[in-house]
Amino acid sequence: MGILHYGAPPASFTIDDRTLAHLELVIMAKLRRRENLSFAHVDADTSLRQAVWISPVTSLRFEYEGPMPEINRLWLQDLIDAANSSAGLRVLPEPELPSR
């Protein structure tokens, strides 16, 4: 399990490494363009929903237990579309890649 640390002092969100890697790519792309975004997370264990506003001045740290997983481009695009929507970035189900 990975952890997204947000703010100072940090609030921490526990997210599996694969999902967190995809979220990191989306968040960092938005921040490189100096764009703000909202991020909503639902804790799988407690069903607690939290939402945060992420801006280029936000302190963020991504922490992983394992190596960088292979990136699913379809999922990444779905997450980018969510981040650009009025509902904001949230974890979406990972789509299956088409068979080759």
What does this structure look like?
This protein is an alpha+beta fold and 100 residues long. The chain has 2 helices and 6 strands. The strands form 2 sheets. A 3-stranded antiparallel β-sheet has the order 2-1-5. It has a 3-stranded mixed β-sheet with strand order 4-3-6. Strand 3 and strand 4 (49-54) form a beta hairpin. Helix 1 (17-32) packs across helix 2. It starts with a strand and ends in a 10-residue tail after the last strand. The model has no long low-confidence stretch (mean pLDDT 93).
Helix percent reads: 25-40%
Structural class designation: alpha+beta
Rg from alpha-carbon coordinates: 13 Å
Largest sheet descriptor: 3 strands, antiparallel
Shape by Cα distribution: globular
Number of helices: 2
User: What portion of residues belong to β-strands?
Assistant: 25-35%
Question: Which sequence of strands runs across the widest sheet?
Answer: 2-1-5
The first-to-last residue Cα distance is 30 Å
User: Could you name the ranges where pLDDT drops below 50 across 5 or more consecutive residues?
Assistant: none
Mean pLDDT: 93
Tell me the total number of β-strands.
6
Order of helices and strands: EEHEEEHE
Domain DUF7882: 1-94
Protein name: DUF7882 domain-containing protein
InterPro entries: DUF7882
Pfam family, one: DUF7882
Question: In brief, what are we looking at here?
Answer:
Helices cover 27% and strands 28% of the residues.
